[in-house]
Amino acid sequence: MTEPDSPHVVAIPPFVFLGGFFIALILQWLLPVHVFSGIAWKTVGWIVALISGILALSGFRAMHRIGTNIDVRKPALAIVSTGPFRYTRNPLYLSLVLLYIGIALFFDMVWLLAILVPIVLVIHYGVIRREERYLEGKFGESYLEYKKKVRRWV
Q1: pLDDT tens by residue, 95-122
Q2: What angle do CA 75, 80, 82 make, to 5 degrees?
Q3: pTM as predicted
Q4: Assuming Cys at both sites, which of 7, 109, 117, 126 could form a disulfide with 130, CB separation 3.0 to 4.6 Å?
Q5: Which has the closest alpha carbon to 149: 82, 101, 95, 94?
């Protein structure tokens, strides 16, 4: 349940990616396309997925250390600017994108990459932009200064 003090995002981000994943699975089954076959692609996919996991774990740890909520339906309690948040304002969403790419390459599923574009648009407009408005309203100048120093994605 979404609390009143929250960004009121359109969907919980991991579920947006999961929904896209199932759509891509259906498309891959109906219209199989294989481009990323071979051990090299599997290796790159594995490495990208591993980087995704490291980034996500680091982001979770930074949020936990600061003592803020990770769940987007709950209030933000602080601005996190340590760990991967020094380089990207959205390391957890970036980690989901990287995981998605890693899975697409590892399992040779082109449809995952095709579906990634609408997923990122939903995340950008339905989640990130809402979170940013919320954080600007809640933390004011502190968040605006953070935004000036750190890019949204990379």
Answers
A1: 999 999 999 999 999 999 999 999 999 9
A2: 160
A3: 0.93
A4: 7
A5: 82
